[in-house]
TrEMBL record:
Gene3D superfamilies: Fumarylacetoacetase-like, C-terminal domain. The keyword Metal-binding applies. It comes from the Bacteria. The keyword Transmembrane does not apply. Keywords: Metal-binding. SUPFAM superfamilies: FAH. It holds the Pfam family FAA_hydrolase. This is 2-keto-4-pentenoate hydratase/2-oxohepta-3-ene-1,7-dioic acid hydratase (Catechol pathway). Belongs to the FAH family. GO terms for molecular function: isomerase activity; metal ion binding. It comes from Pontivivens marinum.
């Protein structure tokens, strides 16, 4: 199933996407609610509502303004340094344990919403990433069982303010500026993708300019391995999100000059079989002045 949470005619709902059309699942069953959490928490509900899709009224996907798939995720855990060539372009040694950091709720926004370059820096970078949403929670999850804990996969742009990222070994400031992490718009459930969403083309672009192009099969730590590692130290809960790191080609490593995102551009992050996460770039001062909605 391919889901889209969004607003049409003033109402936020959960939609099932079929090509260019979508069925309003919330209208079919009010228990679905206005984000994915009810479906994440209740597989029987997801199965029941899926059985009602055939023949249901549709609207064009183009008429839906995306919202966050999960309005209030409990934890947003991100892997860094998960593609060998990205590690090399950043000048790091290849680690034997993934770099892990957290994002806060104010740092994320829905696909299509403005991605904000802060007033204190012009070094706004892009990072194309696979993101997963935890379905079944747990602690000490084995690699063999880990994929059973995934509700679905989506697209993430881990927008990074590079000079602030380097102010601390923990990366927290540069990864948590308001409205720098775009998520969505689609969430695809595991049965419609290769195991662990491996082997999918992943790319970032501005217009016709290809910034990154790789494959999720190149990740050092797979989805299953990442879940196992993370659940060693924390209990994963339904609706938690895990971002799986970015491939090479990020802006700060471009030669001879870094390639920063600038207001007026639109950055697209695409993962094969999942979708495109598009974000217009705006300056914080213009957003504050009402220059973007």
């Amino acid at each position: 199933m391919k889901y889209l949470v969004g607003k049409a005619s003033g109402e936020t709902a959960v939609y099932a996407v079929m090509g260019s059309d979508a069925v309003d699942l919330t209208a079919l069953d009010a228990a679905v609610g206005t984000d994915l959490m009810a479906l994440v928490a209740d597989p029987a509900l997801a199965e029941s509502v899926a059985g009602k899709v055939a023949g249901a009224p549709t609207i064009p996907v183009a008429d839906i303004t995306p919202a966050l798939p999960v309005k209030a995720p409990g934890s947003i855990i991100c892997l860094g340094l998960n593609y060998t060539d990205h590690i090399k372009e950043g000048g790091y040694d290849i680690p034997d344990y993934p770099a892990l950091f957290m994002r806060g709720k104010n740092s994320i926004m829905a696909a299509g919403a403005p991605l904000v370059r802060p007033t204190c820096s012009e070094k706004l970078d892009y990072e194309a990433e696979l993101m997963l949403i935890i379905g079944k929670g747990g602690r000490h999850i084995s690699q063999d069982d880990a994929l059973d804990h995934v509700f679905g996969y989506t697209v993430f742009n881990d927008g990074s303010v590079r000079d602030y990222q380097r102010k601390t070994h923990q990366w927290t400031p540069g990864k948590n500026f308001d409205q720098t992490g775009a998520i969505g718009p689609y969430v695809v459930t595991p049965e419609d993708l290769p195991a662990g969403a491996s082997g999918l083309k992943i790319e970032s672009r501005v217009g016709d300019e290809i910034l990154q192009s790789s494959n999720t099969g190149n990740m050092i730590w797979s989805v299953a391995h990442a879940i196992a590692i993370i659940s060693e130290y924390t209990t994963l809960e339904p609706g938690d999100m895990i971002a799986m790191g970015t491939p090479p080609g990020v802006g700060h490593a471009k030669k001879p000059n870094p390639r920063w995102l600038v207001p007026g551009e639109v950055v697209d992050i695409e993962i094969e079989q999942i979708g495109i996460c598009s974000s217009p770039i705006v300056d914080e001062k213009d957003l504050a002045a009402g220059g973007a909605q």
